Amino acid sequence: MAYWNYAPYVSVGERRAKAERKIKQLKKKNPNIKPIVISGNTLAKTWWGKSWNKNLERYADYSNRIGRGRSYVRHGSVLDLQIKPGKIEALVQGTRSAPYQVDIHIKAIKKTNWVKIKKACEGKLESLQELLTGKFPEGLADIFMAQGEGLFPTPQEIEFNCSCPDWAYMCKHVAAALYGIGARLDENPTLFFELRNAEIGDLVTQAVEDKTKKLLDKAKRKSSRVMEDADLGDVFGIVMEEEINYKKTKKATVKKSTKRQQTKSTGNVKKTQTKKPKQNRIVPKTDLTKTVKKQHVPKRKLTELEITNLKLENATKELEKTKKELKFTKPSKKTLQKSIDLVADIIINSKKGIGIAELNKKTGIEKNKLYSFAHRLKKQGKIRNKACGIYEKNM
To answer: How far apart are CA 210 and CA 164, in angstroms?
Structure first.
């Protein structure tokens, strides 16, 4: 008498065909489903996707079981995967006709860990774009990947459940969903911070503060190239107000004005009218400047305090410009919807799909906001991913 029932062998082609048929059926009921589609041999291509998979594989609790899901996710068996704050919901196609429901809960990052990470990022993170693309120093990557103290969760912070009858600690459907998260992070890395309930804006603010500190430190250092008064006047169009040693000039002889008597004849009577003496005319600033130039004012080196003040003024202007570039503003609902509709029209009308960089050139909208708009439009079923970072109309 046999006690074990083994499922019949199913070829790769049959699995993929079965998954595609099921996706079409599910889209009729729910157009917002997001299947995991793996193109090529690698499960993840970006730093965030690869690091997610690497984090799972390095723990002994998962190393012997996580591999069961590789073939499932590679053959398109993850029919839908939704990432929400602290939660992942997935539908994975198994041997039976109906897909299995997988629920994964991930705890928020510990506050102590988050404080340490923000402190460690000081002076190392330059911009939000650098963070999302994974183009940051190796030292920062080591901090993010630190076991138990970095950004990525430990097995103790992950709980999961599957509707399949498999009694194993981690079934292949859960493993496939975990690998699917890495593939989804390739498309939109901001979902990682949403999943871990971490505010990505904190790291961006830290980048602004770091840049401010650098500018101010640079302004305090005395430069070897000291500009002189005449050079500053030509460059900035200002007159340096300081004690000026004028050359002694000959005093012009001024005739003393005496009272003039003007006689006006009114009949036989003569009236005398005295004219007021001329007052000293106030020389305008423009005339003074011309006079100074004509008299060849000797050049004077700026004091260290004056140089520092000028540099601080320039540093402040550059800081304000940087803050405007990195500042997250909350537009009105109408303005936000207009921006989303504009992005949707451009993507839908593009014949071969369009990437984030090209959308940024056409709309002028920041790339991180474009990622957010694309994520929302995909959720609404209006667009879909043609490739990593390239979007097209959802057929």
So the answer is: 50
User: What does the alpha-carbon distance between residue 231 and residue 69 come to, in Å, rounded to a whole number?
Assistant: 70
Instruction: Confirm if 158 and 104 have CB atoms less than 8 A apart.
Output: yes
Give the residue-averaged pLDDT of 350-359. Answer: 86
Instruction: DSSP letter for 274, please.
Output: P
Give the residue ranges of DSSP H helices in the chain.
Answer: 12-29, 47-57, 60-63, 70-74, 111-120, 128-133, 138-144, 172-187, 190-195, 200-220, 229-236, 285-294, 304-326, 333-349, 356-363, 367-379
Q: How far is CA 208 from CA 75, 130, 328, 370, in A?
A: 43, 13, 12, 21
CB 152 within 8 A of CB 51: yes
Question: CA-to-CA distance for 105 and 158, rounded, in angstroms?
Answer: 6
Q: What is the pLDDT of residues 209-240, one digit of tens each?
A: 555 555 556 555 554 444 554 454 554 555 54
Threshold 0.70, pTM exceeds: no
Can you name the residues that pair with 272 across neighbouring β-strands?
263
Burial of 145 (0-12, 13-18, 19+ CB in 10 A): middle
Tokens coding 129: 């774009």
Task: Single out the residue of 54, 46, 88 nearest to residue 174, CA to CA.
Answer: 88
**Separation between Cα atoms, residue 118 and residue 124, nearest integer Å:** 10
Per residue in 125-149, pLDDT (tens digit) is 777 777 888 877 788 888 899 988 8
Q: Each residue of 292-310: b (16+ CB within 10 Å) or e?
A: eeeeebeeeebeeeebbeb
